[in-house]
Design goal:
Blueprint: H1 2-6, H2 9-28, E1 32-34, H3 41-45, E2 59-60, E3 67-68, H4 76-111, H5 116-127, H6 130-137, H7 142-158, H8 165-183, H9 185-204, H10 209-242, H11 253-258, H12 260-263, H13 302-309, H14 332-343, H15 355-375, H16 382-387, H17 402-425, H18 428-445, H19 448-473, H20 475-484, H21 491-520, H22 529-548, E4 554-556, H23 557-560, H24 565-570, E5 578-581, H25 592-608, H26 624-633, H27 643-651, E6 654-660, H28 663-668, E7 678-688, E8 702-706, E9 712-717, E10 724-727, E11 730-732, H29 736-743, E12 754-756, E13 773-774, E14 776-781, E15 784-791, E16 795-802, E17 807-811, E18 814-816, E19 819-821, E20 825-830, E21 833-841, H30 848-871, H31 899-908, H32 912-923
Parallel strand pairs: 5-6, 11-12
Antiparallel strand pairs: 1-4, 2-3, 6-9, 7-8, 7-9, 10-13, 10-16, 14-15, 15-21, 16-20, 17-18, 17-21, 19-20
Helix pairs in contact: 2-4, 4-5, 4-6, 4-7, 5-17, 5-22, 7-8, 7-9, 8-9, 8-10, 8-30, 9-10, 9-15, 10-30, 14-17, 14-21, 15-17, 19-21, 20-21, 21-22
């Protein structure tokens, strides 16, 4: 243990890597990958996300009619994806991000001059923090990379050695830039932490105040400029894809008010603040088995609040009643030691912290308080004030501020543990006192605040136990509440799981309180310091490791992505048509297809096999053109739920529909639907897989079985436009509203006419009855489509993919002008004859080259600093442990005790061994 606490980067890397390897082993073994909601293996395998082509731009062709999702930034996430490939990336993405987070926080604590026990334990606490751990397992490990970069930026700024000032400022700036590259708005929030760190560091610094402010502003300017240097491409993309031409991003008061519920849907409910201290109190994931599914209010759509308040009358809303994929547990010992560090600020006589560390305790305690208040979102008034700032309305999810809270709590824990190490563990005098008189003797001799600290620990432990007993005694009330929020079938399981979680929370909180009491009374002082350090690290590992296990969900990817007859049919020529699910409410027996389609097929199997769907998986920031188009056919926004959406399917080459087999009868009985006859292609049932658990409800456990009398069918709809078609007649109209009115007017015939939405040559023919001619797709990839088109007269070739200025077109090798057709689609004018037409997605490089230059500059600076550290002598101060006096009220930090006074005090009160040794020498 002593060797571990004296180790450096290598030792910390080995320890943290070994811990993570043990935790993630079930997802690393052959045939397995880690479940990922936001970056599943199927999505990584999609052709549109193939690397390294994604660095030059990404056109997502799998949902709706296509979307520019921006190029891959030169950050850690995409570089790892390129180097490891989809399968190994799915295995090691979370592992790598958490390892870097642990090492980054360890580095920061080391630069603060904390003891190695505080550095190792602090790094472990951050690495295993449930918020950081769960988000990595959810598929958003980029947020952990951003957290790691934030710690590394603060480490570079914490202590500047002569000759390293510019290098450290450069590395801090590049680390902040990388955080923005990785995590967009989360990175921007974390960059504010670094800014506040620098501001406080400047104001807290001793010396000439004016000079300090001027120097501090210069340092801040250098860091900001270099951060933008590296993150230029990401900042441009953030503006382009999250603000510019995105629905609801206007900054007028009415738009911001309308966007309030969207922006604050994922707020932290006040009651769920308890989840910071008790893991699993409100469940884990939405599908955690044995009662562990989440049952809180996070992610609830505002319509559900109204619905539940009105006694659940009428049809339930379509939005989420709850949704989460992350936890918030910080750890019992992390919490208590952090609170002890804040409480230690009350000690005025013989303070625990010196002036420098005392300032950091004040800074991070304030940061934790403010960030937690903002994370409450619409459940408290604080976020309303923040929301008034420019473009804050474009940020979704106030719980992102919990990352700032986690950073603050991790630092407070490390600062507190460092003080405990120096004050208790390293005190030989305290060890002698504890060995001679025990805890009763310590209580009699301890300072008042020390005794109060013990009493607070005892009170917290007892409170947690009594709270658990009271909670368990109201089980019936909990079950009744769970049933009222639409968890009828799971209410009993969820209640039992929550009560057990509260019990385990009380156990670990009591254990943490007892451990702190033992540290205070000298049970692990002196020679027993190594044992105490081991107990602390093991307690952290057991507590946080146990709490995080439910987030680790290994997946047999070969089984998950196994095909079935429906997928086999749809994957044959996926570029020729799109598929959709029938947009109707279905009774429970038939609703199984909706769960299977929405979860497994649309998010996993369809991307894996490059099957294109008209339904959108998740586009929280919808472009204005798609939003306007969707408003015209969305069943929730139209009086007629079939006619407009049928027109949308016709215009977008949506040829296949999945639904119940009885839909064919309904279709035939409705004369309004004769225009689009249904033809059943495949009839099937949805059955559990061979190895599925008994009575499972997980869509991943179901597959397709062909049956002539199956409940479900894959239908082909008639009168659907080809993917690419040639029109001899068109109209010109540059008014978006007018174009949409014409397209969704029943008198408009898309099979004979189309609309060019910009100034284009007038149609040479007045004959509007010529039917559309299909063009042949000779070569297809998401960013390159080659067509063979034949025109009898001057015509327009329309490709039913979304128009975007980044697309370019060539006719017979000659560049041509890209047209915007039918409001959403792209096209080009062609002369009579047979032609080869190529559409290519070629987005401009923008600021990509600047960011690449920033990356290479950052690597050069990092290598330079490493060489400087290796070649120069080690000058990092190693503070000595001052001998403690006999009475605990006089225990002080070495940082507040002048060396001369320490020497005088040591001479006046020599330790027994030193006195005997001096006596022997005088006799000799």
């Amino acid at each position: 243990m002593d060797r571990l606490l004296r180790g450096g980067w290598g030792t910390a890397s080995f320890l943290f890597g070994a811990i993570l390897l043990c935790l993630f082993l079930p997802a690393i073994i052959p045939g397995k990958v880690l479940f990922s909601n936001d970056g599943p293996l199927g999505e990584l395998m999609a052709a549109c996300h193939a690397m390294p082509g994604r660095f030059s731009g990404c056109w997502s062709d799998l949902n709706s009619v296509g979307l520019d999702t921006g190029p891959a930034a030169p950050g850690l996430t995409f570089v790892l994806q390129w180097l490891l490939g989809p399968v190994y990336f799915s295995k090691f993405y979370a592992f790598t991000s958490l390892l870097l987070l642990g090492l980054g926080s360890w580095c920061f604590f080391r630069e603060l001059g904390l003891s190695m026990l505080a550095c190792v334990a602090g790094g472990m606490a951050m690495m295993l923090n449930s918020s950081c751990f769960s988000v990595a397992c959810w598929g958003v490990a980029a947020h952990d990379f951003a957290l790691a970069m934030t710690f590394l930026a603060m480490a570079a700024l914490a202590r500047v050695k002569p000759g390293q000032t510019l290098l450290r400022l450069a590395l801090a700036g590049f680390a902040v830039g990388e955080a923005v590259v990785e995590a967009a708005d989360v990175g921007a929030i974390l960059s504010l932490v670094v800014v506040l760190f620098m501001v406080f560091q400047t104001l807290h610094q001793q010396g000439d105040r004016v000079k300090n402010v001027v120097v501090g502003l210069g340092r801040l300017g250098v860091v900001t400029a270099l951060a933008f240097f590296l993150a230029a491409q990401s900042v441009q993309g953030l503006i382009q894809f999250s603000i510019h031409n995105v629905q609801g991003t206007a900054q007028d008061s009415q738009t911001k008010a309308d966007r309030w519920h969207w922006a604050t849907q994922w707020s932290l409910p006040k009651a769920e603040v308890l989840g910071l201290f008790v893991p699993g109190l409100f469940g884990y994931r939405m599908d955690t088995p044995n009662g562990g599914n989440y049952w809180g209010n996070m992610g609830r759509d505002a319509a559900w609040d109204t619905f539940l308040e009105n006694g659940s009358q009428g049809p339930p809303p379509l939005g989420f009643i709850r949704y989460t994929g992350g936890g918030n547990y910080v750890g019992a010992l992390t919490l208590l030691v952090g609170l002890w560090a804040v409480g230690a600020l009350l000690v005025r006589k013989n303070p625990v912290f010196d002036r420098r560390l005392r300032g950091w305790v004040i800074f991070y305690s304030g940061l934790a308080t403010v960030s937690l208040m903002l994370a409450l979102g619409h459940y408290a008034p604080f976020y309303h004030l923040f929301y008034q700032l420019p473009y804050v309305s474009t940020i979704r999810n106030p719980t992102k501020f919990l990352y700032v809270f986690d950073v603050a709590m991790g630092v407070l824990f490390a600062l507190g543990l460092d003080a405990m190490d120096r004050r208790y563990l390293s005190s030989k005098e305290l060890a002698v006192a504890a060995g001679g008189k025990g805890t009763p003797g310590w209580l009699a001799r301890a300072a008042r605040l020390e005794r109060h600290g013990v009493l607070v620990c005892v009170a917290l432990a007892l409170t947690s136990i009594f709270a658990w007993m009271a909670y368990a005694s109201h089980r019936s009330d909990l079950v009744e509440y769970l049933q009222s929020v639409r968890l009828i079938s799971l209410a009993d399981l969820d209640a039992d799981f929550s009560i057990r979680a509260a019990g385990w929370g009380a156990v670990f909180l009591t254990g943490a309180a007892c451990l702190i009491i033992l540290l205070k009374t000298g049970a692990f002082s002196g020679k027993r310091r190594s044992l105490g350090a081991l107990v602390i690290l093991l307690f952290l590992l057991v507590d946080l490791g146990r709490a995080n296990l439910p987030w680790i969900v290994p997946v047999d990817y070969k089984e998950k992505y196994s095909t079935n007859p429906v997928l086999d049919y749809l994957r044959q020529q996926p570029q020729d048509q799109r598929v959709v699910l029938v947009p109707m409410r279905l009774p429970p027996p038939l609703n199984l297809i909706r769960n299977l389609y929405k979860v497994e097929w649309l998010q996993h199997q369809f991307p894996y096999y490059n099957i294109q769907a008209f339904d959108m998986v998740s586009i929280p920031r919808l472009p204005e053109d798609l939003a306007a188009y969707q408003k015209r056919y969305d069943p929730t926004q139209t009086t007629n739920s079939l006619t407009p959406i049928l027109r949308a399917w016709q215009l977008t080459n949506t040829r296949y529909m999945l639904g119940p087999s009885e839909l064919e009868t309904v279709w035939e009985d409705n004369s309004n639907l004769f225009e689009h006859p249904l033809k059943p292609l495949i009839q099937f049932d949805i059955v559990p897989k061979a190895n599925a658990p008994y009575q499972t409800h997980d869509p991943a456990d179901f597959t397709v079985s062909l049956s002539s009398n199956g409940l479900f069918s894959l239908f082909e709809m008639g009168n659907i436009l080809p993917r690419a078609c040639v029109y001899a007649h068109w109209d010109n109209d540059t008014q978006d509203k007018s174009v949409l009115d014409k397209l969704f007017n029943p008198t408009f015939n898309p099979e004979t006419e189309m609309i060019v939405d910009e100034a284009a040559p007038d149609c040479p023919s007045n004959n509007a009855t010529n039917p559309v001619e299909a063009a042949e797709i000779q070569q297809y990839s998401p960013k390159d489509v080659v067509l063979r088109a034949k025109a009898g007269t001057t015509s327009i070739l329309m490709l039913n993919d979304r128009y975007d200025p980044a697309w370019k077109v060539w006719v017979d090798g000659q560049a041509a002008h890209l047209l915007r057709c039918n409001f959403l689609m792209q096209g080009v004018q062609i002369p009579p004859g047979l032609h080869k037409v190529e559409f290519k997605f070629l987005p401009p490089p923008g600021l990509r080259n600047i960011s690449l230059a920033g990356v290479f500059t950052a690597l050069t600076c990092l290598v330079g600093l490493l060489l400087m550290v290796i070649l120069s002598p080690q000058t990092r101060p190693q503070p000595e442990i001052a001998p403690a006096p006999d009475t605990l009220p006089e225990l002080v930090s070495l940082r507040e005790q002048p060396p001369q006074n320490q020497k005088q005090k040591s001479n006046q009160n020599p330790r027994p061994r030193q006195a005997r040794r001096n006596g022997k020498e005088s006799k000799g």
